[in-house]
Amino acid sequence: MLDTELVKIDVNNIDHGIMKRAGAIIRRGGLVAFPTETVYGLGANGLDGAAAGRIFEAKGRPSDNPLILHISDVKELDKLVRSVPDSAVRLIDRFWPGPMTLVMDKSSRVPEEVTAGLDTVAVRMPDHEIAILLIRYAGVPIAAPSANISGKPSPTVAEHVMDDLMGRVDMIIDGGRVSIGVESTVIDVTCLPVTVLRPGGITLEQIREVAGDVSVDPALADIDGISVPRSPGMKYTHYSPEAQVIIIDGKVDRVAEKIKQMTRELEGQGRKVGILATEQTRQLYSRGVVIPAGDREAPGTIAARLFSILREFDKRKVDVILAESVEEKDMGLAVMNRLLKSAGYNVIKV
Ligand code: AMP
Ligand code: MG
After folding, report:
1. Host H or E run for residue 322
2. Are residues 288 and 337 in the same domain?
3. DSSP E strands: which ranges in 175-288?
4. CA torsion sign, 189 to 61 to 21 to 6?
5. Which domain holds residue 156?
6. 8 A C-beta contact, residue 2 and residue 169
7. What's this model's pTM, rounded to 2 decimal places?
8. How many A from CA of 258 to the centre of ligand 2?
9. Which end of the chain is more exposed for a tag (fewer CB within 10 A), N or C?
10. Residues with Cβ within 5 Å of ion ligand 2?
11. If you average pLDDT over every residue of the chain, what do you get?
12. Domains in the chain: how many in total?
């Protein structure tokens, strides 16, 4: 057990003394959880294999699931990769700092613990003042996956990190609620067309504007099919609350009808039901624990609340979560990807 130090940082009035201390913890091989714009990250010195190894231990993360290296300046990229393809230069220009991770051929400086033995490394520059300062004060790139116990929904407030990682990390920096709420978009730029391995905070539509032709890893959460993922992390159970999640997919009025019917049946069997609804449908439900995630027409609002709502259902001890599907456009693609994984691909079509 570690003695986890909890610190609060106000983004608008940053205490540099604390940030320096946090950076020093990272540099000497410790673990610090910190906010980014996507989700909270669990950081370690990205050039120190033993330190990166501690991340896997703290999270219970499978050792073949590589980490993302976080940098604070594009200049740091050259030391981490063998070359930066033209496609990457254009994407970086447009989307860094931001929720976009690029997979490139790794240099010899990147320890194999970080890449889980792969010849490629994933790198991103976060768009969050606390994350950037932490990297600067650490003086090294920071290896960081999401700061949750492996398999659980990613943390979007510091309380989620505390619930999962108290006693397992050296410091947790509370910087308030994150803005995006789902992880970065992972893009493989070692090939053409560039390939999206994980949908996230930057949408396919945005990437197409810059990269033109973009392919999507077929293993990606298409609601109709599953195949073998190229991004190792995508094959594991993920984002799962204690409750069983079932997605109801189809036209929204029929989805609501089906959820009402299933709620009656499940409650009849003595099970407590949670309903993951939307602003457009919340008033249709009179039974169950109803939580509207956001606006169907603005899926980014749903992304921002999805993980915290999954955790909220657990706090309210529901047995089953019936989740409405949303359209897989814009941020809706990332939302459905996370929801499908949290449901173990359990989908009822109506
Ligand atoms: P997490 O930080 O928990 O969201 O996990 C990082 C994600 O990036 C996982 O889905 C990894 O599989 C993916 N990733 C990291 N490095 C690579 C890489 N070299 N090639 C492909 N995917 C990667
Ligand atoms: Mg994760």
Report:
1. strand 320-324
2. yes
3. 185-188, 194-198, 214-216, 244-249, 273-277
4. positive
5. 5-221
6. yes
7. 0.95
8. 31
9. N
10. 145-146
11. 95
12. 2
